[in-house]
Design a protein that fits this description.
140 residues, mainly alpha, Helicase, Ruva Protein, domain 3, Arc Repressor Mutant, subunit A, two-stranded parallel ribbon, 8 helices, elongated
């Protein structure tokens, strides 16, 4: 889906209309930052992940447009990686996660299971964060 940003926009808009109607909310669309983040995200869960993200944004948001902050953390982390337009709060969280993962990785001498234990997360979660934060090349 990533290569077809126009499809992401069309699908997100359709999912927004359906979720808003279901929740009884009047939604106008997406802020430019939110749509840019949706288009930039890799969508490993494909269309279902996009639909779930939009449903979550409708339920959690309180404005008539989906805001960047209404989107799931996985999308926000990717947005913080790719854009200085990401809110400072999310950039700070992104930077803190990167630093913590790199430090744990080095302490564990590259053993992701030990690094995950140092961080108090499941090894699969650590691998997903490494991928999302773009740390693969840096950690080697």
């Amino acid at each position: 889906m990533r290569e077809r940003g126009e499809d992401v926009e069309l699908l997100a808009t359709a999912f927004l209309a359906r979720a808003a109607a279901s929740a009884g909310r009047n939604m106008r669309g997406f802020t430019p930052a939110a749509m840019a983040a949706l288009k930039h995200y890799d969508w490993p869960g494909n269309i279902r992940e996009l639909e779930n993200a939009i449903e979550r944004a409708v339920v959690l948001g309180d404005l008539p447009e989906v805001q960047l902050e209404d989107l799931p953390d996985s999308i926000l982390e990717t947005a913080a990686t790719s854009s200085e337009a990401a809110p400072a709060f999310h950039r700070s969280i992104h930077d803190a996660k990167r630093t913590a993962i790199i430090e744990a990785w080095h302490k564990a001498r590259g053993d992701y299971k030990i690094a995950a234990d140092h961080l108090g997360v499941h090894p699969n979660s650590l691998l997903r964060m490494i991928r999302t934060l773009g740390l693969r090349a840096e950690l080697g």
